[in-house]
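We emphasize that the prediction below concerns an isolated chain of 69 residues; any contacts that depend on oligomerization or on bound cofactors are therefore not represented. The input was used exactly as deposited, without trimming of termini.
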Amino acid sequence: MVNQSDMECVPAKLTKRIVDEMEELINQGWYANKSELIRDAVRELVKKQKITQLESAIKNDIQWGLYGK
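Result of the prediction step, given as a token string:
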């Protein structure tokens, strides 16, 4: 579990449409609140980006191994 002292507030401006969609997910019970939803979304984005970077590095290694380029 994360301590409150380990948390940092990061201001962000979101469009009304995104906020409405967030509230819909919260009302459907997918998330307890907006903070939880945003943290989950950011974690997923970071994970996806890391996977993309790893895949790119692997492809470059394969390219270099096959063709020396």
